[in-house]
Recover the amino acids of this structure.
């Protein structure tokens, strides 16, 4: 049986839990379908040994400088012809923009729903952001060009890449149906209607 990896906790409520091929990678395993793993460390699998990998709403919880290494590791363990499905929140999507905090240049620096809070630096008079330390905070804020930049810094750039859903700029977006296979993406149109049918996530497949 081909082995599939699910980055993060493989919750009993996830569709992927119903597929016996999937193993979750969790800091604190909760059941026998999860193994203990820090996602910023090397994957404990041989080269070209994994058929499918899915990272669904997890990379934005990791320090951004660690992401290219994580993508390198995914590429390393994928079998030839193996598929990695990436989905991250799209911070050009209207519902995410509405709940975010911005700097003076209009860049997202915090998501109020995902672990960010603001405070005033009494020494400088500047507004600052702090993040919760429970692992739930979004530490960076994906947009299409940022995701593309991270991919180009990694071995994953060698894969065949197909974007299904993403805002390409503030007005133009892709919104193709994501294949309804084992790697189901919950926060994607048409399942997620928060943006009225427009993308709420950046979703892409990488075929080695």
């Amino acid at each position: 049986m081909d082995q599939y990896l699910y980055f993060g906790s493989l919750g009993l409520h996830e569709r992927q839990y119903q597929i016996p091929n999937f193993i979750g990678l969790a800091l604190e395993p909760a059941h026998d379908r999860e193994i203990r793993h820090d996602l910023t460390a090397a994957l404990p699998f041989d080269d070209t040994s994994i058929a499918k990998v899915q990272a669904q709403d997890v990379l934005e919880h990791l320090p951004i400088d660690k992401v290219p290494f994580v993508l390198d590791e995914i590429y390393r363990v994928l079998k030839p012809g193996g598929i990695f499905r990436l989905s991250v929140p799209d911070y050009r999507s209207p519902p995410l923009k509405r709940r975010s905090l911005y700097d003076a240049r209009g860049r997202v620096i915090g998501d109020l729903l995902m672990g960010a809070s603001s405070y005033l630096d009494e020494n400088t008079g500047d507004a600052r952001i702090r993040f919760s330390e429970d692992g739930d905070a979004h530490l960076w804020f994906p947009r299409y060009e940022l995701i593309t930049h991270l991919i180009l810094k990694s071995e994953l750039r060698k894969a065949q890449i197909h974007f299904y859903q993403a805002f390409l700029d503030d007005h133009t977006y892709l919104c193709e149906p994501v294949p309804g296979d084992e790697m189901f993406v919950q926060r994607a149109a048409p399942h997620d209607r928060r943006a009225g049918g427009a993308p709420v996530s950046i979703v892409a497949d990488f075929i080695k």
Residues 44 and 102 are 38 Å apart (CA to CA). Residues 67-77 form the longest helix (11 residues). The longest strand covers residues 78-89. The chain has two domains: 4-90+138-207, 95-131.
